[in-house]
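Subject: Protein entry, chain in single-letter code together with its fold tokens

Category: Structural biology, sequence-to-fold work with a learned token vocabulary.

Notation: Tokens come from a learned vocabulary of local backbone shapes, not from coordinates.

Start of record: The labelled sequence and token lines come straight after this line.
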Amino acid sequence: MIVPFGAGGNTDALARIIRRGYPPASASKFVIENRVGAGSITGLTNLAKAAPDGYTIGVGTAAGLAINPRS
């Protein structure tokens, strides 16, 4: 899971709450990766360019998507 904000913030906390909702077998393989920079554009760009294999998800904010709609 890609979080485009720093660890310990609101978005990171939301990602960790979402992680708890997954079954224990899949949650043990869950990695939360904080990709900070450029007002969330760095993380959202990495999310957009991730392989379309169904294994990468992201948590972001509407502001980050509105700032950079091409990511």
Observations:
- The longest strand covers residues 2-3.
- The mean pLDDT is 85.
- The chain has one domain: 2-67.
